[in-house]
Amino acid sequence: MKNRGVPQDQFDGRPVIGICNTYSELVPCNSHFRVLAEQVKAGVLEAGGFPLEFPVMSLGETLLRPTAMLYRNLASMDVEESLRGNPLDGVVLLFGCDKTTPALLMGAASVDLPTIGVSGGPMLSGKYRGTDIGSGTNVWSMSEDLRAGNISLEEFHEAESCMHRSHGHCMTMGTASTMASMVESLGVGMPGNAAIPAVDARRNLVARAAGRRIVEMVKEKLTLSKILTKDAFENAIRACAAIGGSTNAVIHLIAIARRIGIDLSLEDWDRAGRGVHCLVNLMPSGKYLMEDFYYAGGLPAVLRELGENDQLHKDALTVNGKTIWENNKDAPCWNRDVITPMKKPFKKDTGIAVLRGNLCPDGAIVKPSAATPKLLRHKGRAVVFENIEDFHTRIDDPKLDIDESCVMVLKNCGPKGYPGMAEVGNMPLPPKLLKKGVTDMVRISDARMSGTAYGTVILHICPEAAAGGPLALVRNGDQIELDVAKRSLNLLVSEDEIAKRKKAWQAPKPPLDRGYWKLYNDHVLQASDGADLDFLVGKSGAFVPRDNH
Ligand code: FES
């Protein structure tokens, strides 16, 4: 290590701190991470540690095909083995774009070193012709406007440039902002981690403080498993409901928890999130953006509301050595239009709802805060798309036999089926209905949905169609009944008929029979189990039994 000029006196047994960096030009959301890493490094040196930055596989939501989620578990293996194989005493994880956060936390959980997560922060608010526009959310709405002929392609491109005008990740309450909020509410990030814009100088201060603090954590032997307790996960679930967070958090939190040895389930999501209201008026559920959220007080103001309304395990320990309540009990709110009080919430009862029924025996989820209230109880005729290609081929056809009371059904988009469980569950509506002014329909699938998307969209149906779940057996014209209040989703077809269809069903061939895709297909778990690879669940600590020479 002396080949880059590290002085001899630095090899004196001081804590060696890894800075796990997901910087990549292929991941626009993380493109400022070199600066962030320098800040962490400065903090580590100031506290008397020995910082060593290293790259791991990074995952960009916008570029990776067929979906970044396919590679979350692969990136987590890279993180885990890098942390264990190298002589590190503690680690600061730098993440931003959606999947980078869970991938790094999953890998780190399986090693269980002292760990701090630092999020890269959201982009500044999009500004377009006098209005604020949000990443993802307005891409979806403007894509529909474009398809309906309401705007031109030039206007669409102009809006795109106005939307992405600074470093940072999506600035709606999408998956990246949700996961950054999960990091803070789990206690694995420094206070203020979630909302500070990427280009605000205070983002650098969070990174610097993490660098200083991780050195102390090594001395205190404050490992990740002391932070990531069941209470911490329940705090995160409630925080997710209170921010109107992304449905993707359900899968990621289950996967992270099971790596560290906590048995988190869909039932925990439904139970812990019940009765929690959405306090944050942010897109896609509301109108503001992450920049507004930060100026209004950010996640600390939300956590304070949860604590004052008995919805927070106050004693959960966080990485700065204080409890979550000590960190947030005096947090101010500067704008009650952006962050509402629990007594006058922005939306009521917004915890993720977990559905069961003969269509989803192992569960399905819906985000009520992003849905149309009157569609949360609905019965309709199924219009079935066998896979994503079938959907794209037929959805624009004016002759498609569909009206607004139908239930759109998409199959074979789950963990095995796509593969990687792509964010295609929020199927665009047929143009002929858009032109009529229809804005939402019940849509069901085994896919995920972007955290920036919205609508009455039932997701993560388990087991998925490609694994032989009942979703595979739905046919055009079947009646489907949804009742979110009763937590049910059922196919109104007789058991005999279902059994007959099941007998005739044939499993689809895996798309690739070699390499990582094969490993993934052979071992991926269903969404209800976090969609991790079965052999990665759990942890094996940081110890390596043999030396290298
Ligand atoms: Fe990276 Fe949205 S594309 S956070």
Mind explaining what this structure looks like?
- With 549 residues, this protein is of the alpha/beta class.
- Helices cover 34% and strands 11% of the residues.
- It has 18 helices and 14 strands.
- It has helices spanning 33-46, 72-85, 100-109, 137-147, 153-163, 175-186, 201-220, 224-227, 230-243, 248-260, 266-273, 290-296, 298-308, 324-328, 388-394, 431-435, 495-504, 515-523; strands at residues 16-21, 50-55, 90-95, 115-119, 126-128, 131-133, 353-355, 364-366, 377-385, 407-410, 442-445, 457-458, 479-483, 488-491.
- Strand 9, helix 15 (388-394) and strand 10 (407-410) form a beta-alpha-beta unit.
- Helix 2 crosses helix 3 (100-109), helix 3 packs parallel to helix 10 and helix 9 crosses helix 11 (266-273).
- The mean pLDDT is 96.
- Residues 29, 61-62, 97-98, 135, 169-170, 174, 176 line the site of FE2/S2 (inorganic) cluster.
- FE2/S2 (inorganic) cluster (FES) binds at residues 29, 61-62, 97-98, 135, 169-170, 174, 176.
Detail the topology: elements first, then pairings:
Elements: E1 16-21, H1 33-46, E2 50-55, H2 72-85, E3 90-95, H3 100-109, E4 115-119, E5 126-128, E6 131-133, H4 137-147, H5 153-163, H6 175-186, H7 201-220, H8 224-227, H9 230-243, H10 248-260, H11 266-273, H12 290-296, H13 298-308, H14 324-328, E7 353-355, E8 364-366, E9 377-385, H15 388-394, E10 407-410, H16 431-435, E11 442-445, E12 457-458, E13 479-483, E14 488-491, H17 495-504, H18 515-523
Parallel strand pairs: 1-2, 1-3, 3-4, 9-10, 10-11, 11-12
Antiparallel strand pairs: 5-6, 7-8, 9-13, 13-14
Helix pairs in contact: 1-7, 2-3, 3-10, 6-9, 9-10, 9-11, 9-13
